[in-house]
Amino acid sequence: MSLSSSLRHSNSEALSLSQQSTQYLQKHTSTGTSTIPIAFISYPESTELWLMYEKLLLSCLRTGDDKAAHLCIEKLIDRFGATNERVMGLRGLYQEAVAKDDAALGRILHEYDEVLAEDPVNTPVAKRRIALLQSLSRTTDAIDALTELLESSPTDIEAWTELSDLYLSQSLFPQAIFCLEEVLLVVPSAWNIHARLGEVLYVSATSGNESADGKTLAEAMRRFCRSIELCDDYLRGYYGLKMTTDRLLSAFPDNSKAAGQIMSTDNGELPMPSTATVRRLNEKATSKLAEITRRTTDRGYNYAEVVAAKELLDKSTQTKQR
C-alpha cells in the first residue's frame, strides 16, 4: 500500500540493502559503555544516516530479515524516542510485518486506536491504521478513516490517491475521479496523475455498458494528451491514448453523427473531438508506442508495461487486417 512509506525501492534494491544491513549496523553500533550517544563520538549526525536506517528497516522487512529490522527500530527509538510520531509509524509497520495471525493484527489495530484517541493528528499512525484496515479487508472502514484524515489534512496527495484507489476497487467511479482531481489541484503538472485519471475515466466509460460513454472517453483522451504533453516519453500516457482513441474510433466511426458533432457547451462541457482529430492522435500514439518498444533497453521502462504496449499494438494490427 502506498501509505506504508514514502521510501520506495525495487525488489533488487531492497535485497541489496538488506544484505548490507549487518555490516552497516555493526559499523554504527557502540561497543563501549559510555552514556554519551554514539552518534556524537564516532560518526557525524546527519539526516542521511537516519534515512538510511529507515531504508534498511523497510528492506529487511521486505526480505524477511526481522532481526535486523528490529535492530533498526531500536536505533531509531534510541535516537528519537518511542513517542516520536514517525518512529511510532515505523514501529507499527514492523509489528504488522512480524504478526503471526489476524488476532495479532487486531491487537495492533487496537493500539493504533488508543494512540489516536490521545492524539488524533498523529498522521503516521493514522496512515498505518488505514493500511492495516485494508490488509484486514475492511475497505469501508479504510475509506471512512481516509476521509477523516483528509478533513484535517486536505492537501495530502498520497491520501487522496489512496482514497481514489479504494473507491475504484468498489466501482465508485465518480468518487475515484473526484479524488484524483483533488490531487491535481495540488500538483497540476503531475503527468502520472493525469494518466491515472485518464485510466479511471476510461474504465468508468466502458464498464457495465453495452456502448461506451463518448463524453467520458473524450475526457479520458484529453487527460492522456495532457500527460504526454508534460512528459513526452511517458509510456502509460501513450498506452492510454492509443487505447482510448481505438475505442472512440470503433464506437463512433466516420458515418456516426456523434463522432464529429459539436455538442452544446452551454453547461460548460467541452465539445466532442472530431473523427479526424481522434485519428491523428491515434496515429501519434501508435507511432510513439512502436518507437518506445523498440528502444526499451536504454530507457529503463517497466518490463510489464512494455509487454502490454506490444500486445496492444499487435491487437490493433490484427483488427485492422480483418
Straight-line N-to-C gap: 42 Å
The backbone outline, from C-alpha atoms, is: elongated
Total number of helices = 15
Strand content bin: under 5%
User: In which range does the helix fraction lie?
Assistant: over 70%
Secondary-structure blueprint:
Elements: H1 11-27, H2 47-63, H3 66-80, H4 85-98, H5 102-118, H6 123-135, H7 139-152, H8 157-169, H9 173-186, H10 191-206, H11 214-230, H12 235-251, H13 257-260, H14 275-294, H15 303-321
Task: Provide a descriptive summary of the structure in words.
- The structure is a single chain.
- The protein is mainly alpha-helical and 322 residues long.
- The protein has a domain at 189-260 and 285-296: Serine Threonine Protein Phosphatase 5, Tetratricopeptide repeat.
- Helices cover 70% and strands 0% of the residues.
- It has 15 helices and no strands.
- The longest helix is centred in the last third of the chain and has 20 residues, at 275-294.
- The radius of gyration is 24 Å and the shape is elongated.
- The protein starts with 10 loop residues before the first helix and ends with a helix.
- Residues 1-8, 30-42 and 255-264 have low confidence and may be disordered.
